[in-house]
Fold:
Amino acid sequence: MTHRSLAPALEILERLIAFDTRSSESNLPLIEYVRGVLHGYGIEATLVHDATGTKANLFATIGPQDRGGLCLSGHTDVVPAGGQPWTVPAFAMTRAADRVLGRGVADMKGFLAVVLAMVPRFIEASRHTPVHLAFSYDEEVGCLGVRGLLSQLADAAVKPLACIIGEPTSMQVAVAHKGKRAYRCCVEGLAGHSALTHLGVNAADFAAEFVAYLRRTARDLRERGMHDAAFEPPYTTVHTGRISGGIALNVIPDHAEVEFEVRNLPGDDPGALIDAGRAYTERTLVPEMRAVHAGAAIEWHPLVDYPALADQPASAWLTHLVCAAAGNAKTRTVSFGTEGGLFQAIGVPTVVCGPGSIEQAHKADEYVTLAQLSQCLDFMDALAERIAAGPLHPA
Ligand SMILES: [Zn+2]
Structure:
């Protein structure tokens, strides 16, 4: 294997970091830059915009357009840097001896830069099997952006044969992760003087009962639910992350909120848990509240919903291929979510493998080592070699 120079990838990475692509901002300047880079190689990208027209996914195919190939996918958005103790500028690349620093270098602009630096190699390699690039927006706020692109791909005549998501796994091959569903439950009660508790509906009390219900559910899942030793922890979790309610000690709270999440094992149905939670609020809590005040209610607002990535038999050939290219036969799971389950849901076998560690993501002085970026370049080289060698799928 040739050891390629990191210089082109670092040059691109420096440009990518300088775009402030926090999920709250437009990603179009970055997307236009990427489109320009691809155009320079004669590759025309398709953009799939959001409803406001201020964000877009980018999809491009290198090589034959009439058949599916290997898709390399990553998100262009990053989490905020404000309020964190950064010692270097967050939206500029800082070079140190063995690493580069900046918001998104690990999660996941380092991967995008390596992919873009390898485009000339992919052009050579893709005479028979194409390489697709899928760059999304709004991943960090619940894998929202990529859905627009995937709904188009699901109906398209040509769909990728497989996908590699370049989230930071320290270049290990991850074949599965949990799914996530999160909700805000707003409890609407009735205010009153705290001496006259029987005339009001204490929203904080009912919120607390719901939190206790969630806690019982979590304990049940831990003690009696499905277990899978590949995951840490090896069961589906339920977690309350935020509760609020009340304005003063001597006022019956008329409003309270609970935010909670379910992180389910692949194969465990989060929908059944959510349905049971809704049934508990509707059949047990709300009737008791309405006995005092007809307008009382518990309203559910969805916050996050993405599916698990499962290690499926249909993906075994891809896992084999990617492990060979990564030079590491050992697969793992990851504790964080990715867009991978959404690709899998439209029938595209998917694994996760990218440079840098999730330990450095979302933190001050986020970094990726030069060794990790080099390893990713070698990985892309090996993938290119594999693509050039013949059909991806042993049909
Ligand atoms: Zn990420």
